[in-house]
């Protein structure tokens, strides 16, 4: 079993292996300093029939009283309304601050259960059991929890670290190719910003042939960044590579038709092209990234007008003051923040990213 300790303000372990769900009870107990008496397992309507029973049985075998809470799968559930239902289930199950919430599912489940755990009784412990590639290599690590409001995605949330993360790689076998590809965009992003060797491995081999190693490398990269910048004041911004224009694309299509990973992939190509035009990214980088995205069945371009995307990007919450912190590549494996004054932003995107 691969295991790493995240040195966050409240340290926690991440365990990576096959078949962790069936051992979740003993693993949770051995990683908590105080034994919980009760647990609410939060999961969605797709994941519940696949994996709830295994986790529930393992926790109950350790003498933990389990109450499941199942919500309708999909981003549209990531709302205060569902969190409010969670509070009621937590309360009716008799959860106290010594008990636990368990997020069993993808990023929607983790973000929402994490937020409920951060706020219920001013904060209870929660366990992440991520079951999508994206949630294993991205959303379950780093302590960001959130919900969506009408005005924007992830606009309400909290920093709240899990007590433990269990990455059961076996759960990915039931993931649809579409959601697998979505996670691959983030894996490619990690290669772009921090690891040429990961990028090259993804070029030479097939991700499915070295999945545990790939997941472990991605988690280690995210952990390193998050450990050095838990509250997103500096290095963590690098994780937004491809996301400034990617988020704009998602918004342009009203979060329908183009998934997050697809949008981020296109965003990475546009960002690299802009870097090439500016002379800060070596020529050929955008094409190389595009070729890798294609290999993993991700799109590399989109007809949406760049001017409109530039405007949408300005309304993104990650813009700080009067500058856009644009993440560019010095080379593959080495990213940096290139601040663009708001007044020059549109010209920067139009002039740089178009070809
Ligand atoms: P998701 O949770 O909706 O899961 C995607 C789909 O896969 C769902 O339909 C789900 O039911 C299904 N599913 C999950 N596990 C499965 C399995 N093992 N087998 C079969 N089907 C399975 O979404 P996601 O793509 O995992 O995550 C996206 C969310 O993560 C977004 O809301 C995004 O904002 C958030 N996010 C958060 C962070 C963070 O730092 N907190 C980072 C990135 C993304
Ligand atoms: Zn992302």
Automatic annotation (TrEMBL):
Instruction: List GO terms (cellular component aspect).
Output: cytoplasm
Compartments, record wording = Cytoplasm
Q: Which reaction does it catalyse?
A: 7-phospho-2-dehydro-3-deoxy-D-arabino-heptonate = 3-dehydroquinate + phosphate
Protein's pathway: Metabolic intermediate biosynthesis; chorismate biosynthesis; chorismate from D-erythrose 4-phosphate and phosphoenolpyruvate: step 2/7
Q: Does the keyword Cell membrane apply?
A: no
Q: What class of enzyme is it?
A: lyase
Q: How is the cofactor bound?
A: Binds 1 divalent metal cation per subunit. Can use either Co(2+) or Zn(2+).
What name goes with this protein?
Answer: 3-dehydroquinate synthase
């Amino acid at each position: 079993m691969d295991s790493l300790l995240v040195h966050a303000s409240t340290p926690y372990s991440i365990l990576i292996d096959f078949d962790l769900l069936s051992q979740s009870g003993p693993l949770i107990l051995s990683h908590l300093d105080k034994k919980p008496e009760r647990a609410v397992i939060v999961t969605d309507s797709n994941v519940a029939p696949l994996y709830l029973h295994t986790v529930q049985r393992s926790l109950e075998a350790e003498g933990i009283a389990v109450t499941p809470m199942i919500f309708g799968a999909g981003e549209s559930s990531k709302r205060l309304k569902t969190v409010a239902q969670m509070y009621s289930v937590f309360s009716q199950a008799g959860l106290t601050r010594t008990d636990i919430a368990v997020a069993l599912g993808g990023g929607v489940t983790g973000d929402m259960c994490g937020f409920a755990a951060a706020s219920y009784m001013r904060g209870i412990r929660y366990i992440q059991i991520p079951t999508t590639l994206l949630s294993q290599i991205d959303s379950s690590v780093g302590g960001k929890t959130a919900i969506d409001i009408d005005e924007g995605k992830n606009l309400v949330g909290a920093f709240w670290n899990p007590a433990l993360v269990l990455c059961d790689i076996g759960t990915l076998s039931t993931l649809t190719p579409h959601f697998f590809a979505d996670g691959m965009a983030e894996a490619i992003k990690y290669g772009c910003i921090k690891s040429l060797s990961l990028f090259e491995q993804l070029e030479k081999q097939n991700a499915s042939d070295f999945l545990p190693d790939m997941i472990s490398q991605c988690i280690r990269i995210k952990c390193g960044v998050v450990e050095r910048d838990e509250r997103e004041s500096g290095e963590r911004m690098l994780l937004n590579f491809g996301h400034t224009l990617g988020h704009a694309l998602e918004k342009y299509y009203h979060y329908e038709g183009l998934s997050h990973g697809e949008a981020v992939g296109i965003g990475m190509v546009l960002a690299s092209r802009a870097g090439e035009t500016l002379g800060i990214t070596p020529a050929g980088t955008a094409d190389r990234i595009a070729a890798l995205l294609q290999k993993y069945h991700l799109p590399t371009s989109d007809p949406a007008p760049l001017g409109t995307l530039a405007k949408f990007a300005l309304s993104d919450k990650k813009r700080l003051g009067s500058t856009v912190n644009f993440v560019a590549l010095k080379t593959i494996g080495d990213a940096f923040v290139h601040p663009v004054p708001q007044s020059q932003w549109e010209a920067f995107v139009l002039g740089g990213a178009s070809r």
